[in-house]
């Protein structure tokens, strides 16, 4: 078992770290305080090949691997987690086209997604379900050479400015199928964007489908059987979210150390206090455990053997640990930890969000237990 990154992976990690520190820091206030997405960042992400890291260069990708993907996620999230979420969606939607799309669809969508010229949102969650595909109410009715879609999707990231959407819907036989719906089609609309606790600037809204007619060829990967496609997409999502939490934890530890070194108590920095030592030690230990669990998940994905159980274990442990680590970082800051003048309060708000994305912690536990040997 090799725990060392390759020279290429280390070089890529350093490049993304420098990019994040230089280019993302100036847009923190735009996203967190104004809850707006900075679209000027999209061509910069594209220039770094961040929208299609593990995909074939002939479709605009970087031709790299999933370990490199999580390394990039970690570095981006360390500076500004909402942009890592945005980047994740680029990679996840590219993955769906890569695995289910026709050659024409791959070229029509993967290349412009990787170039930062198109945004495609991923639509599964609905008002009455967020984890159980059997409860999906959105329908796709076959009508001649077209499908007609009706329904509402909820909490959809990038929806307010998406050029198209990948929609999970029930077909005439009650099977789950995946459809490509362009945002300019009649009957396609989005509701007002959500004002939320953390990960601000990631624009979420409902996607509303009111008799939206699409050509039959917009059915991706054939009819039915897309529960497996959903599970596959979720494995990537859980892995990416875990990597982002590692970035948040690293940022929290960095902020806690910096504050403790400069905060004086009786003419001594609080860094010298045993109570602070214990908090920092816990933060560092949990961070390292989370980091290597996440890297393992990415390695398993690259080897083609990563399972839902592997990713659920990773997501459960890492996202819950991120909340603890960021909370301990706030404790180091004392009363200043709740002040918006300090980065730590934003890190804590963002960390809490990850326990709820791609399935709550309770859902992860169910996924794990159902797959335990018995």
List keywords for this structure.
374 residues; alpha+beta; Butyryl-CoA Dehydrogenase, subunit A, domain 2; Butyryl-CoA Dehydrogenase, subunit A, domain 3; four-stranded mixed β-sheet; four-stranded antiparallel β-sheet; 10 strands; globular; AcylCo_DH-like_C; AcylCoA_DH/ox_N; AcylCoA_DH/ox_N_sf
Description:
The chain has a four-stranded mixed sheet, with helices on one face. Strands 2-3-7-6 form a four-stranded antiparallel sheet, with helices on one face. The mean pLDDT is 95. It is built from ten helices and ten strands. β2 (139-143) and β3 (146-157) form a beta hairpin. The protein folds into three domains: 7-114, Orthogonal Bundle (Butyryl-Coa Dehydrogenase, subunit A, domain 1), CATH 1.10.540.10; 120-223, Butyryl-CoA Dehydrogenase, subunit A, domain 2 (Beta Barrel), CATH 2.40.110.10; 227-370, Butyryl-CoA Dehydrogenase, subunit A, domain 3 (Up-down Bundle). α8 runs antiparallel to α10. The protein is 51% helix and 15% strand. It is globular. The chain has helices at residues 7-24, 28-32, 42-47, 66-100, 103-114, 226-262, 274-302, 308-333, 343-354, 361-370; strands spanning 120-123, 139-143, 146-157, 164-170, 176-182, 188-190, 204-215, 219-220, 264-265, 268-269. It is α+β, with helices and mostly antiparallel strands.
Order of helices and strands: HHHHHEEEEEEEEHEEHHHH
Number of domains: 3
Name the CATH class of the largest domain. Mainly Alpha
Gyration radius, rounded: 21 Å
What would you call the shape? globular
CATH topology of the largest domain: Butyryl-CoA Dehydrogenase, subunit A, domain 3
CATH architecture of the largest domain, by name, is Up-down Bundle
Class from helix and strand fractions: alpha+beta
Look at the structure and name the CATH superfamily of the largest domain. Answer: Butyryl-CoA Dehydrogenase, subunit A, domain 3
Q: Which runs of at least 5 residues are low in confidence (pLDDT < 50)? A: none
For the report, how would you describe the main beta sheet? Answer: 4 strands, mixed
Calculate the terminal CA-CA distance, rounded to whole Å. Answer: 28 Å
Pfam family, one: Acyl-CoA_dh_M
Family: Belongs to the acyl-CoA dehydrogenase family.
Domain Acyl-CoA oxidase/dehydrogenase middle: 121-212
Keywords: FAD, Flavoprotein, Oxidoreductase
